[in-house]
Design goal:
Pfam families: DUF5672 (PF18922)
Number of helices: 12
Distance between the termini: 41 Å
Oligomer: single chain
Protein name: DUF5672 domain-containing protein
Number of strands: 8
Number of domains: 2
Strand order of the largest sheet: 3-6-5
Shape: globular
Structural class: alpha/beta
Organism: Nguyenibacter vanlangensis
Mean pLDDT: 94
Strand content: 5-15%
Low-confidence stretches: none
Length: 245
């Protein structure tokens, strides 16, 4: 499918950039909170179309033929959060949002997000005000499940997906090794990195799992592994299994 524009918003231009993708320089986003503040308060300045498809590094379009024009009938659509009981749409890492929503959010978003991701802030904390004061409409769950998936696996094909821990489903071993080598230290130290390594191990992608653990060892050091696992809440038997890769 075709988009009006494809834009990479980042503080530095990559050495290589695919044809048709614009680079727009923005201040460095050094933390999750900084990213959330940018999305909540500044993103609308960069959007001049009715909608924008936000795609973080760990997601992409899976099947362009799965696009449904009904997606754009709503101001927000993203993968369903199955662990919530209400307001479960949805994940922002691969999400379609209207410019109307972006501008409304910028008006009422708090300066501090109290550690919440920007998607939780938009879809749960601010949702009632967005609906009542600005006429914002969030997509229904049934449609969101056809749009993308994250934690809850889909019953059929979806337009896209999000999640580091899902990359093994859609990329080959060589691509996974390349990504593992290029990840910043902060991501290597994250719980999601351990989850990714565990997924690779579970599906017998041993080269990817081994590369992940070698990268982690290089970042935290042999003496720091036990403390890292404990801090991440990893069960001892699981940690032992990862170390034996």
């Amino acid at each position: 499918m075709r988009f009006d524009r494809a834009v990479l918003l980042s503080s530095a231009r990559p050495a290589t950039l695919a044809a048709g993708i614009e680079h727009v320089a923005i201040p460095a986003l050094a933390s999750r909170d900084a990213y959330s503040r940018f999305i909540l308060r500044d993103l609308h300045h960069h959007i001049d179309t009715t909608h924008v498809l936000i795609v973080q590094w760990d997601g992409f379009v899976l099947d362009g033929t799965a696009w449904d024009g009904a997606f754009a009938a709503y101001d927000y659509i993203g993968a369903v959060w199955d662990w919530h009981t209400q307001r479960r749409v949805g994940n922002g890492g691969f999400s379609l949002r209207s410019r109307k929503l972006l501008k409304a959010v910028a008006e009422i978003a708090p300066e501090q997000t109290a550690g919440l991701g920007e998607d939780e802030m938009v879809c749960r904390v601010l949702a009632a005000r967005l609906e009542s004061e600005f006429g914002i409409v969030f997509a229904p769950e049934a449609l969101a499940r056809r749009f993308a998936y994250e934690r809850a696996l889909p019953d059929g094909r979806t337009f896209g997906f999000h999640g580091f821990f899902n990359l093994w489903r859609h990329l080959g071993d060589d691509e996974l090794l390349e990504i593992t080598a290029a990840l910043p230290v902060g991501l290597v130290r994250s719980r999601e990195f351990l989850e990714y390594a565990a997924c690779c191990l579970a599906v017998k992608k041993y080269s990817a799992a081994h590369a992940a653990m070698r990268r982690l060892l290089a970042c935290v050091g042999g003496d720091g592994l036990d403390a890292h696992f404990r801090q991440a809440g990893v069960a001892p038997e699981f940690a032992k299994m990862l170390l034996e890769i």
